[in-house]
Amino acid sequence: MSFNIAIDGPAGAGKSTIARQVAKKLGYIYVDTGAMYRAMAYYLLMQGVSPDDADETERVCEFADISIVYENGEQQVILNGENVTGYLRTEEVGNMASVSSANPAVRRKLVELQQRMAAVNDVVMDGRDIGTQVLPGAQVKIYLTAGARIRALRRYEELKKKGIQGDLEQIQSDIEQRDYRDMHREISPLVQAEDAVYLDTSHLSIPEVVEAVLKLCTERQNG
């Protein structure tokens, strides 16, 4: 039986960073569902399709083939045969993903792929509704969060390191708006699963958070 770790939380909480490191230490497969949703968002942007147009979104979703491969230990997201990893972290794609992820056709296609991967592999999966909808039977569930200002500062520094000049106030505003949309959408809103462990990373270092998650995994595996 596969061992699944589900990490949920709002945008910018550090889910991907923590999930990636935990997976590496455990030798599990890291599945960044956010990247998959961003790939679909990028696809919709390239197609000029509005996620508000349910019929058109459902039609084009049929032609979107999204897969994950690893090159030199790094996850790469492939969209219809093209590596689109480098396009997925822009604010435009992130905002589009927050909106398009609520579309039933988008969610159906990606959730099916995610569940299939987790059924046959030990995985660490992060996103907005992993513990509540995608992997409700996950052995470990964590709700990872941090204050909006802290998350905005982290994003600002991340962009700065890449040589991109960001607007801190605008980044925080985007994060707060994204939080609201994610928590109030009709389909699979962002909520903490009843059996998830709440972990606020506002004043914790990355190694401290990773250690906390690994400790929880060990307890569940030995319990």
UniProtKB/TrEMBL annotation:
- Return one GO MF term: kinase activity
- Record EC number: 2.7.4.25
* Residues that hold ATP according to the record: 9-17
**Domain Cytidylate kinase, which positions?**
5-217
* Alphabetical keyword list: ATP-binding, Cytoplasm, Kinase, Nucleotide-binding, Transferase
Tell me, in one coarse class, where this protein mainly resides.
cytoplasm
Q: Which Gene3D superfamilies match?
A: P-loop containing nucleotide triphosphate hydrolases
- Catalytic function, reaction form: CMP + ATP = CDP + ADP; dCMP + ATP = dCDP + ADP
Cellular localisation: Cytoplasm
- An example Pfam family from this entry, by short name, is Cytidylate_kin
Q: Which InterPro entries match?
A: Cytidylate_kin (IPR003136), Cytidylate_kinase_dom (IPR011994), P-loop_NTPase (IPR027417)
**CDD domains found in the cross-reference section:** CMPK (cd02020)
Q: Which residues form a coiled coil?
A: none
Source domain of life is: Bacteria
The record's PANTHER family line, in alphabetical order, gives: CYTIDYLATE KINASE, CYTIDYLATE KINASE/PANTOATE-BETA-ALANINE LIGASE
Say which family it is in. Answer: Belongs to the cytidylate kinase family. Type 1 subfamily.
Alphabetized HAMAP family for the sequence? Cytidyl_kinase_type1
Protein name from the UniProt record: Cytidylate kinase
Q: Which organism is it from?
A: Ruminococcus gauvreauii
